[in-house]
Amino acid sequence: RSIQDSVHLPRLRTFKLRTPNRFIANYLFGALNCPSLRKFSLYIYYPYSIEEDTVERAFLEPERIRDFLLRSSPTHPLEELALGWFESQSIYSVLSNHGRWLEDWLSALKGLKIINLRDFTISPDVIEALTLQTEGPLDPETHRFPSLSTIVLHCSHPLEEQDLTHEMIEEMIVSQWRAGSLRIAVLSGKLWP
To answer: What is the sign of the dihedral through the CA atoms of 16, 21, 24 and 25?
Structure first.
């Protein structure tokens, strides 16, 4: 099978990938088409055997993942998203400007019920995208995640290292709760004192 061939998996509902290798991730996100996908998990981690500057190191590539999700969820929205990016602080500081990825994914995430973010997938832009307007009535047309019932955030590093504050996290949780569908919020690691 060549790398250009598409792999159509019409009944696959859950896809979980845990890898340190960007070539594996890029191949799968480019080749797979999963029109029944409901649950997507990606955990990028680095065993000690991989050198920090090697070309094969995986890192969060939001555009590639967005394209995969849009291709895989054309009629049925994704319900559960879990992302983890376990990284050393030195590499994070170089790669942290990965943009407003959650904003770019909104069309694929309208039906999202559960979001689970770990470590360096949590950024100020992500928290801002999850924070809903708090003044006036909530506009159903602009409500980003109307079905979001569970938010799980885990951070192994101090918030300050990711330019986050406890107030930002609290504002996001309260805004989602006020919107009406949030039932569970799990904050763990160094997210809360």
So the answer is: positive
8 Å CB contact between 70 and 28: no
191 near 154, Cβ under 8 Å? yes
C-alpha 193, offset from chain centre: 24
| Paired tokens of 2 | 């060549």
Using a cut of 0.90, tell me whether the model's pTM lies above it: no
Report the alpha-carbon distance of residue 175 to residue 87 in Å, rounded: 29
Q: Which two tokens stand for residue 154?
A: 């885990």
pLDDT tens digits, residue range 119-174? 877 888 888 888 887 676 666 666 778 889 999 999 887 777 778 889 999 999 99
Per-residue tokens: 93: 């500081």
To 5 degrees, how large is the angle CA 40–CA 178–CA 42? 15
Backbone angles phi and psi of 33, in degrees to 5: -130, 115
DSSP E strand stretches across the chain: 7-8, 14-19, 32-33, 39-44, 80-85, 114-119, 150-155, 184-189
Residues of the chain with pLDDT under 50: 1-3, 48, 50, 89-97, 99
Helices and strands counted in the chain (H then E) = 7, 8
Give the residue carrying structure tokens 């986050």: 164
> What is the signed CA dihedral for 137, 140, 143, 148, rounded to 10 degrees?
110
